[in-house]
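Interim report to the steering committee. The following record documents the input for Iron complex transport system permease protein (353 residues).
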Amino acid sequence: MSSAAGTELDTATPSLRPVRLPRRWLFGGLAVLLAAVLLGLTVGPAGLPLRGVVTEIVNLLPGVDLAGGLDDREAAVLWQLRAPRVVLGLMVGAMLALAGAGYQGVFRNPLADPYLLGVAAGAGLGATFAIVSGGNRLLVPLAAFTGGLAGVAATYALGRSVGGRSTTSLILAGVAVAAFLTSVQTYVSQRNSETLREVYGWILGRLLTAGWDEVLAVLPYIAVSAVVLLAHRRLLDVLSVGPDEAGTLGVPAGRVRLVVVLAATLGTAAAVSVSGLIGFVGIVVPHIVRMLAGSSYRVVLPLAAALGATFLVVADLVARTVVSPGELPVGVVTAFVGAPFFTLVLRSSRRSW
């Protein structure tokens, strides 16, 4: 896109403020994220000393070897159990928040979230098939990932067959596909009652890891999706004025919408394949960012990633401590916060969007 066009785009959306990420929000978001990470690493059934954890992290730097770290047992808890879980929470939370903001941008709908196009229902059905067939721990995420992509493909095929490129048609198709896939999943679960507990445990969402395998398995997909979404944040600002107006400014609205939806779906499918169905992150976090820092996607997307990561790490911390030594599904915690917030958004969306 030419520089002249770029200047025209900047002046075409004067109501979108701020257009750059203010330093106070950048440093504030990073500080909150760092605090959440340290809490996630130190708090739990096996409490770890904050100083020892910080020392262990600093000692990862080349040429640094500080004394006063953790003993062997504590180091094993940190690096083999606690750290993979926190890192997975950071990745999943950031991805779900980014995807939610991206969906809301391309559909211009404040109620859009990562499960809008059938990705959650498809992932749930895929995981259910893997669980009832006795699949191992590696098969379940792969089946969920495949099911999520298949759900979105079905939504697109149905939506385009009845309404072309209409946003409303895609949303209604997503509702229909999700309802059908959920009914199939329920039928399969009921027919295999011996696996019912495991299936519903996955549906409620969890961040259980057995090391770094889950993190490494989804890292490439989430990284690519996040980069694509962040690279389109300026174009999402242009789309906010409407697809016709964006077209007159030289922005291919249909292509931008397709790329953003595909990237958000790929990242969401990867995230839920290892975490289960964790809801409301994609609705709650982008709206909080808009209320605090403005509506420009050049601000919303990076801050949503940071706040989404923070939110899920804190939610997971609550899930594994509030009923200790037991543990709640993290999806229960996010729903407890997200459901009332969703109600507020639903009531105010007609006035504020």
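Residues 1-18 have pLDDT under 50 and may be disordered. The committee is asked to note this result when reviewing the revised timeline.
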